[in-house]
Each structure stands twice: as structure tokens, then as C-alpha cells.
Specification:
Layout lengths: L1 H28 L6 H10 L4 H28 L6 E4 L2 E4 H4 L13 H5 L9
Antiparallel strand pairs: 1-2
Helix pairs in contact: 1-2, 1-3
């Protein structure tokens, strides 16, 4: 049951942070968002070749995944930070359930492969 609670946290993290961030960046790069940041990004990449844009799009999930990895390391390494997730009457601190929070992201059984709807290349 504890692992189910941990995986629920992973599912939320991947869908609400990873996928949403990658999708938003893709929308900005394609000109489908009109906010100030989106317009600035589009302006900055307007001179990019198709190959350069593809490289940038490849890089986006790498940056997002590294940020998630580092956030999970921070949670794990700092005793003053506790993240709990509840399911009914059961509540668990995620770092007490996991044997290594950053590792939960990766591999064929990791959160990214299980829960992400956005692009991912393992081990690259």
C-alpha cells in the first residue's frame, strides 16, 4: 500500500509538472501561446533553423527531468523537508517509502515511463 501512495505522488508529479511544462514549452515554440514569455521565447528562436528548433525541442524534456531529479534529491537530503501524500486514512512521507526518490523517475518501471504522455528517451 505504501508503494501505491508513492506512485500516486509520482503520477501527479509527472502529469502536473513534467507533462504540463513540456507541453507549455512546445506550445510557446509553435507560436500557439500569446503571453509575454511566449512572445519573447518565439522572438528569441525566430532565427533558428529547423534543425536547431528540433535540438531545442529534444533538450526541453532533458532540462525538465533534471529539474525533477534535483528536486527529489533536495527532498531526500534535507531532513527539514517532508512531503506527505494521503490515501484515505493512510498518510506517508514519500522519502520513507522510497529507497531513492530520484531513481523513481527512471527505468521502464519508473514514473516517467508509467505516467508521462510526453516524449522521453531513456538513458540519453
Amino acid at each position: 500500500m505504501d508503494k501505491d501512495i508513492l506512485n500516486e505522488y509520482g503520477k501527479i508529479l509527472i502529469s502536473d509538472v513534467r507533462d504540463r511544462t513540456i507541453h507549455s514549452m512546445d506550445m510557446m515554440l509553435s507560436g500557439k501561446m500569446n503571453g509575454v514569455t511566449a512572445k519573447r521565447i518565439l522572438e528569441k528562436v525566430s532565427s533558428f533553423s529547423e534543425s536547431q528548433l528540433e535540438s531545442l525541442k529534444w533538450l526541453i524534456p532533458k532540462i525538465v527531468d533534471l529539474s525533477l531529479h534535483n528536486m527529489l534529491v533536495m527532498i531526500e537530503e534535507n531532513d527539514e523537508i517532508n512531503v506527505e501524500i494521503s490515501a484515505g486514512d493512510v498518510s506517508n512521507n514519500i522519502k520513507e517509502v522510497s529507497d531513492g526518490l530520484p531513481g523513481e523517475l527512471y527505468t521502464e518501471d519508473g514514473w516517467i515511463m508509467k505516467y508521462s504522455n510526453e516524449r522521453y528517451e531513456e538513458g540519453i
